[in-house]
Amino acid sequence: MVALEPQTPRSRPRSDVGLVDRLSEAATTIFHIRGTTLEDQYRFPLENFMPREKFERIKEFARDKETPCLVIDLDVIRSKYEELRAHLPFAKIYYAVKANPNDEVVALLRDLGSNFDVATRWELDQLLRLGVSPDRMSFGNTIKKERDIAYFYEKGVRLFVTDSMTDVDKISRAAPGSKVFFRLLTEGLGADWPLSKKFGSHPDLARQLIKTAIRFGLQPYGISFHPGSQQRDVGAWSSALTTVGQLFSWAKEELHADLKMINMGGGFPANYVEPTDSIAQYAEDIHRFLDYSFSDGWPEEIIIEPGRSMAGDSGIIVAEIVNIAKKSVHERYPWVFLDIGKFGGLIETLDEAIKYPIYFEGSGKPVEIIIAGPTCDSMDILYEKWTYTMPDKTKIGERVYILTTGAYTQSYSSVYFNGFPPLSSYILK
Fold it and tell me: Global pTM?
C-alpha cells in the first residue's frame, strides 16, 4: 500500500478524466492520504502488477543473488512488443536502446523485427555486434559530434535527427545525401518525466532547418516529436500532430518538398503506482488524431520509439533493508534505508517523478515510512513526500521488491560512486 501526502489541486490531464471513477475504489485499498487512519493490516496489490506465481518464480530465482540486482523477464518484453504491434500496426517500432541496453533484450527485439533508436556510437557498436543491420537504425540524438555522425554514416546508417542549424551543417558534411528528420520542441505537460526545453526546435526554426537541409543536399524526410516520457495525457499527441500536419502542408506548398515520415517518439506508459489508460486507448485516440491532421492521407511512414513501455514492466529490483531508524525521539515516520538509491539505478525518483510499486513482504500493521538510499549524498532520498508503507514487523536485512524497474534503472546507475558497483542484472530463466 502506498500513502499519498495531500497535493496542491491541479487540473487533471484529459486522459485522466476517464480514470477518476475507475480509480476511486482502488484508491481506498492502494493509497492513503498521509495522516489518515490506515487499514489494520498491510496489503500490497501485487496482482495489479504481476501474477503471484510469476513473482514467486522471480523471488526464488533471485534467492542466491547478491542485492541489489535487477531481474528481467523477457516474456514481458515480448508481450509488450506484440501489444504495440497489435494496436499500432501502422507504426514502425524503433526501440529506444537507452531504456534497457541488455544484450538479451536487444537480441530478442532484433529477432521480433524491431528497429532501433540509437543515441551514441557505443550503442551503434553494440547493435552491429549483435547483428542488427544499419538500415534498421536511426541516429536519434540531436546532440552529436561531427566525427560520430561520420562514424554512423561509415557504418551504413542513413537516417538522422536534427534540431539546429549547426547540426544540419555537420550532417551535410559528415553524412552527405542522408535522410534527416526535424524534431519539434514540446512542453511535455502531463508527463511524469517531461522531455522539454533541451530537445527540439520551434516550428518557425523547423521551417528554416528544412530549407537549409535542401540547400545542403540532404533529404528532408520527416518531422518528429516526443510527448514526454510516461505521458498520461493523450492530448499531447493531438497538439503535436496538428503542428506536424501544418509543417507537412507548408513544405509541400512552399518548397515542393514531399515529407514522408512522422516520428512520434515514445511516451507510452509502464505500470507504476498511478494507473494510466491502456495502450489500446492510446492507439485509438492517436489514430483519430492522425485522421484529423492528415485528412488527405497519412504519410508513408510512421515511427514510434518506445523504451519505458517496452521494458519497464519486465523488471524487478531485489533490494535489502540496510537500516530502519528515526531522526528524533518523537519522529513520526521512520526512515527505511535500502542498499539501492538514486545513484544505484533509481535516479527517476528525482523530485519523486516516477513512483515505483514497492513490495515489502511480511505481515503486520502498515507503518508510513520515508525511503532512502545507501550513499553519502543527502539527495539520495527516494520518497519523502509521497510516503509508502511497510508492515510494522519488517526487520533489517529483509528483502524488498521494487517493481516496474526494467527501464531506465541499470542504464542510469553510477559507476562506483562511494565504491558501490553499477546495478547488476539477470535474465529470468
Answer: 0.89
